[in-house]
Fold this sequence. Notes:
The structure holds two protein chains of two kinds. Chain A is mainly β. Chain A is built from no helices and eleven strands. In chain A, strands 2, 4, 5, 6, 9, 10 and 11 form a seven-stranded mixed β-sheet that branches. A four-stranded antiparallel β-sheet of chain A has the order 1-3-8-7, with no helix packed on it.
Amino acid sequence: EAQVTQNPRYLITVTGKKLTVTCSQNMNHEYMSWYRQDPGLGLRQIYYSMNVEVTDKGDVPEGYKVSRKEKRNFPLILESPSPNQTSLYFCASSFGRLGSPLHFGNGTRLTVT
Amino acid sequence: EDQVTQSPEALRLQEGESSSLNCSYTVSGLRGLFWYRQDPGKGPEFLFTLYSAGEEKEKERLKATLTKKESFLHITAPKPEDSATYLCAVQAEGNKLVFGAGTILRVKS
């Protein structure tokens, strides 16, 4: 089954404790991206990657890191999480061509206390 | 600055009561407009892509239309299973995708 898999689904952590949210897709997509979703603000792009070893900042990259060492994986790293990073995070992928729809994972709900 | 505004924020309908959701946008060089559906606890699911003014797409009870400044998602005779949050997104130059905040639709039987 074609899918984008994120782990974990839920994560509660404390300020400053490094964490990684994993994302994997099995559709051979070139393009992968991370979004955060907050009430009233919609989905905002954090980072995206057009292909292996090619990453770029989205609209809200501060406090986040990503890497794209393999085509299928695109982990999101929070080196020193803060409470304002409490949010619902989505990973998405597509073929990256004009009009290619994004396929989303089921989300990771992160709480930073 | 590229912007996408969806209205209303929330909509309650009786089963069978047709209505429309609006997505207005200001973007430099529209390359495509997308509609997604999002169910609670899940990621958005793709519905339609529209590319140019005058274009229409249909799927079951949903029909999406596009003008130069806005898009409408028409829901004909909705059923309770159509309840979800509907998201609009525009793809601008450079392939950047900008999302609206969504419309929460509740259909009561």
